[in-house]
Amino acid sequence: MNIQTRHTFGRSVRIGLLGGIIAVFLCLVGIVEIFGQRSLIEHLISLGHVFLFLPLLATGYLAAKDNSEQGQQGKLSLLLAGVLSGLLGGAALSIFLLIGNLIDIRAMFIHASPTLYGMLTFGRGMPGAWLPLLIGALLGTLGALARLLPPKVQQPLVRGLFGILLVGLFAGLVRPLLIARSGKAEDLGRFLFGETGLTQAGALIFFVLITGIIVIWSARGKTLQVRISRLPRAGQSALRWSSIGLLLIMALILPQFSGAFIAQVIVLISLNILMGLGLNITLGFAGLLDLGFVAFFAMGAYTVGLLTSYGEYGLAHLSFWSVVPIAIFVAFMVGAFLGLPVLGMRGDYLAIATLGFGEIVRLLAGSDFLGPWLGGPQGVIGIQKPCIGSLGPFLGAGIPRVCHGLELGGPKEIYYLAVVCALIAAFVASRLRDSRLGRAWMAIREDEDVAEALGVNLIQTKLLAYMLGAAFAGLSGAIFGTLVGSIFASSMQLMVSFNVVCLIIVGGMGSIPGVVVGAIALIGLPEAFREFSEYRFLFYGAALIVMMLSKPGGLWPSSIVQRELHVMEKDEPDPKSAPSVSTSAK
Amino acid sequence: MRTTLTEKFGEVAVFMFLWGFRILVVSVVVVGTILSIRGGKYTGVQWMDFVVFGIARGSIYALIALGYTMVYGILRMINFAHSEIFMSGAFGGYFLANAMSHTGFLDKNPVLGLIAAVLVGMSVSAGVALLVERIAYRPLRKAPRLVPLISAIGASFFLQYTFRGFFGPGIYAYPNIKVLTGEWNILGIGILKMQVVVTVAAFIMMAILYTIVMRTKIGKAMRSVSENKDVAALMGIDVDRIIVFTFAIGASMAGAAGVLYALMFRQVNFFMGFVPGIKAFTAAVLGGIGNVPGAMVGGLVLGVFESIGPALFLGGLGIPRPYQLQDAIAYIMLVLVLLFRPSGILGERLTTKKA
Q1: β-strand partners of B192
Q2: Cβ distance B247 to B129 under 8 Å?
Q3: Fewer CB within a 10 Å sphere, N or C end of chain A?
């Protein structure tokens, strides 16, 4: 065995054990058990199993990496490395099973339950304790194959599998819609989709469909792309605008088809996009890590609450539309107020100080001290919904206003409000980014001292970053207040700020499409899938770390950051091409 | 000309705001104190109780603050995950203490049991800290300052929810140690035994740490790495090893603090690290970040202020249920320190980082 092979096997041992530890971790944390309730392919594989298999697959894939210089390592030895790592991963699980059988670890780890053991042994109990070894080896092989097979074969297969994973995830959302239509659609729904995932037939059909599409696309797709790029400018932009138009039309009619639940999810996503755009200004453009962002959200929400509620804390009873600009203005001013003390702080201190502010706002809002005005722990209730058209005469504090026009009562109606506001905000944010102020912000983000030396007024620019970010958050809070109808100080927690920070980081700091991507990924997923919401912050935390380690620019990095990164790479000398210096005299 | 005017306006606004803030805080403190003492709502013994409780809690904050301050001194970064390291120590100690209490071991040998619990808590914390350092911090040492900060925040939440996943969202109660319930009479004042034990234990740990940092060879290495990493490397110090050691020691202190906190408040919960973590950070900054005795002083000062604050400053002004704003006092102290004396009480270290 030459040194290269020994090295590969050593690596595969390490990777295999690491993968096994991760799999056991997923079991102990309860992800496997809880996601096990949601099946991917009915009666066959649950989502929990998918989580269990992923680390083992990954070990096979990683272990089969050809590290030799000319890429001539034997395919067989790489395959064996993959098998070995998968086997070791499975061994970790088997050992876990054995230990669990000997000692009752459930007293400590609440998720080491019989259900979990059943999942690991595929229902066979202790005699099946060796099963994970087999499954591990199998998955290791598959992972290694994914790397070793020629791309033409591997791509459609892998993407086909990924495709059924996605379809299976969303099946639970699509199925009720089809069933609601009844008739042919209902039969189709029941045939393709199970209660939570796909039926076995459905899985097969989708797999064939997706693989087929990918094969056809790779054969013909190139010609289509070439043909599009050959179109004249006018043709290309017409194509782009018409596809955007199509998306907009789909977005407009969506609530009518999708039901209240999906509309609510999209409203929440839009609200988070709004907040994300605001924090994107403060953090993404200006580089100021504000962990107390929820304070501005609270300002907007409480303003709307106090000025429109017909409960006991309502100060006035204005219509929603006239209060929104007031809410934005209040948040704007509070942004200045909370920004002034922290003007001189940088980095970590800024983060903790702003976190403190967020908490102070929450404590004050819920305290008995400010109770007579803000409602204390009971909060402000009875906030009116927005009303387009005429309103009934205002009679007194306890009598609700009657809306004689169109009332935006539920998520389906507020959906339009939220989406329109998000679009406007995105437009405003992009104009700000390209303005002189936006460039000043980015200068501050890169190096404050140099920016000041170049004539950027630090005080003004930083304050404006806080204020404008706060304004967006205030708008988001205003819409939230009217959506939910009541505001409690306990919902203005650090978690809200953390949510928004995560969204921006995962999506891409300073990038407006990134905010949208981040919001859909981080808010849409937990809202749509209840199981995710239990482990929401676990995933967020892991996502932050993984993002920082691998892609600090985010999933959709801003074009400026990408440009800068590429410039840096071009300037760095390539170590492989540098001439080697001989230090020994011959 | 126009730019200069707006610049001047900005500066004037900031100046007036800062002074306004100072005056507001001083007047609240002074007026509140005078009114409270004249109002006579609390007796001398009760004030003493507040102070003693504040010292006990403050010494716990001091232990946690040591971890923040040492890591900051070496890596110039705030270990956001430190609050979860504190929490993991509490959990570690909890499981051992629970087991010992069930077998009756704890009641028969309370001293040994307590020491064992503290040691286990320290080891668990150190282990978690080393993992975090290896995975989330070490690869990012050369990255721009926001990147490890965000990674630390991610690590903090990840740890919180991992522990929630492992052990559940419930609150676990630390076993009751019979020997430690009740009061001792010290200098004529009745002080809860638990508080005395916690304070004394914390002071012992701080003394041990101080000796290690000031009197041993590895302590000298730590100090030199915190002064200048590159020169220390030139002097032959293995910087990676020292960083690992610093994390381990800081984490052990936090782990011990976790066990002590759980003993005092009898509750362990996955979210328990968040608030003490921020307060300990405030304490570290208060005493002077990067400064080991400073962390100790800061912790005690913060603990006492936090304890007597609501009654002394706010009660007198007629604020109902001022203890709700207890945490707010700590946060406001943080902002005050950062605004008006960023170098802290004992510190000379730079607190404004260059980009």
Answers
A1: B183
A2: yes
A3: C
Closest CA to A277 of A479, A555, A469: A469
Residues 73-112 of A with CB under 8 A from B: 108-111
Please check whether residue A365 lies inside any domain of the structure.
yes
Q: How far is CA B281 from the centre of its chain?
A: 5
**Residue with structure tokens 């006990």?**
B56
Chain B residues touching A502 at Cβ < 8 A: 154
Same structural domain, A331 and A446: yes
Q: Decide if A329 contacts B293 (C-beta within 8 A).
A: no
Asked whether residue A241 is domain-assigned, the answer is: no
Q: Compute the distance between CA of residue A540 and CA of residue A37 in angstroms, rounded to an integer.
A: 22
Question: How many other C-beta atoms lie within 10 A of the C-beta of residue B12?
Answer: 10
Positive or negative, the Cα torsion across B263, B265, B267, B271?
negative
Nearest-Cα distance to chain A for B67, in Å, is 16
| pLDDT on residue A392 | 59
pTM for this model (two decimals): 0.87
* Same domain, residue pair A441 and A543: yes
Chain A positions in Cβ-Cβ contact with residue B136 (cut-off 8 Å): 545, 548-549
Largest CA-CA distance found in chain A, in angstroms, rounded? 103
How far apart are the C-alpha atoms of A194 and A531, rounded to whole Å?
A: 17
**Residue pLDDT, tens place only, A324-349:** 999 999 999 999 999 988 888 887 88
Residues forming a β-bridge with B186? B189
Q: Residue A195: which domain range?
A: 153-221
pLDDT of A297: 93
At B350 the pLDDT is 46
CA A484/CA A381 separation, integer angstroms: 9
